[in-house]
Amino acid sequence: xxxxxxxxxxxxxxxxxxxxxxxxxxxxxxxxxxxxxxxxxxxxxxxxxxxxxxxxxxxxxxxxxxxxxxxxxxxxxxxxxxxxxxxxxxxxxxxxxxxxxxx
Length: 103
Description:
disordered N terminus; mainly alpha
């Protein structure tokens, strides 16, 4: 082996310094990528938590809507019954008035 080929990879040589710089750069890029990935994972986790809360709220609203719709149907039935009774009462009053007017 010649001393020139061994000298090109020895510590302190230009090739070693360049390799060290490339490794440092790669490690720095990896660290930056990991920080970015961690941030995205935290963001996704927050979004998943928000979605779960929205789904829970949606289910509660569906239940509330169902309950209120049932109450509205009862009120509509009650209003129809009141209307029917008012019509009957008005007809009864009219009949009584008509009978008094003819007597």
